[in-house]
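Dear colleague,

Following up on Tuesday's group meeting, I ran the structure prediction for the four-component complex that the binding team flagged. I've pasted the input sequences exactly as they went in, so you can double-check that nothing got truncated or mislabelled along the way. The structure tokens for the whole assembly follow below. Feel free to forward this to whoever is handling the docking comparison.

Inputs:
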Amino acid sequence: MEITSYKHTDRILVAIDCIIFGFDKEQLKLLLIKRDFEPEKGKWSLMGGFLGESESLDEAAHRILKALTGLKNIYLEQLHAFGEVNRDPVERTISVAYNALIDIEAHSFELSDDYSASWFPITQLPDVIFDHNQMITDALDRLQYKASHEAIGFELLPEKFTLPELQKLYECIYGRSLDKRNFRRRILAMDVLINTGEKEKESSKKGAFLYTFDQTEFNKLQKAGQNMDLNLY
Amino acid sequence: MEITSYKHTDRILVAIDCIIFGFDKEQLKLLLIKRDFEPEKGKWSLMGGFLGESESLDEAAHRILKALTGLKNIYLEQLHAFGEVNRDPVERTISVAYNALIDIEAHSFELSDDYSASWFPITQLPDVIFDHNQMITDALDRLQYKASHEAIGFELLPEKFTLPELQKLYECIYGRSLDKRNFRRRILAMDVLINTGEKEKESSKKGAFLYTFDQTEFNKLQKAGQNMDLNLY
DNA sequence: GCAAAAGTGTTACGAATACACCCATGA
DNA sequence: TCATGGGTGTATTCGTAACACTTTTGC
């Protein structure tokens, strides 16, 4: 006899919440929405949704992110499952949180109007509902860790970017300034940046070279177990 | 009007699976059980269970661990939520996996007979059900990472242990041998070990000093942001 | 007295840090 | 010509890695 369900009865709502990081050449930001249903309607919240029967956790996270941003191939990484009994006052709900990194200035996307979303600098976040504050704290820790040990920061930048921009991004992530020469030496030593030869001249008279991230080379090095620590933190 | 449930209907089974590591002075081992219900009855599996309505994820993990080992205050850390649609062939179930570390030789506990559990060296694991193999791989990666950056290995040892035992444990975790002098220097430099003055004389004629782990000192240093990396990997 | 495991220091190398000046350009 | 931001090199310090012998004691 084939079994088609477990006798166990406690089936539970599973939510997904996305901690969406962005960078706009100046500040590291977080995308929050005005919650449009009770409870806490009108308060700020992470973008979220419920897990459907026929989608994996990762798929649900992508679906939710796409609903808000229209973007498909976003960097997404599971952060943690939050499961305190009363974390949602309405009904028992566990939430699996995901970190998302997107390039704010990609002209290819527009935020959906359905959610009244807006970007907040991570240094000036409003109050958020439930345990979303904890999620955000954990998310930033994870981002710092990841950015130091893997070539992850690039997800937050346009395809072409300058080294000063990249440094600024890392400074925002770590909340401290970095030595220009040491930063450049180390990031270039990773051997995953390609100088396009083009110059960006908006932010200075001299102009700064535009680089691209060499994903193929990065994959090769990572597979070879190459150490790519930036030793920040 | 107060809201008491979300309209959303997809409530889903939430399982907990525990990756239980132990160490017996020789090898790093994993505790597996013979699954006693369908499907895959009789096959090896991680110890698991379902999340109840009125317990948090962490509480459920502790409950499940206690059911098998009788132990209460075990090191437990959430690993990852696994949520592929067909990971459990019976019914849609997501599983939140937890890493557990226990001292195999603690005389204070006995495995419950209810589960036909047994310890397997991590180098010789049997086939396991579902996606438990993936969970185990992830768990070992996490253990390696944690053991290198925090004083975590101690959870796997008795209250009193010798430095050669501790080194052996780390060698098992990393699957390679370590230089005795460098290992001792670094572990002692962390300043969280106390030499009890007693000697253990079973494994050698000369005898090795027994140490204890100074949890209080460790907490202090950790709070102070002290770097306690062992730089293994 | 010898076998077996515990314990101990030093040197050499490489990586991280700190630090100051020149360059190119537009206004 | 000067103000602005981009770009470059070196000396010092510190941490990591490599390495071999002495000690203790039970048999």
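Chain A touches chain B at residues 3-6, 8, 10-14, 38-39, 50-58, 60, 78, 80-85, 90-94, 96 (CB under 8 Å).

Cheers,
M.
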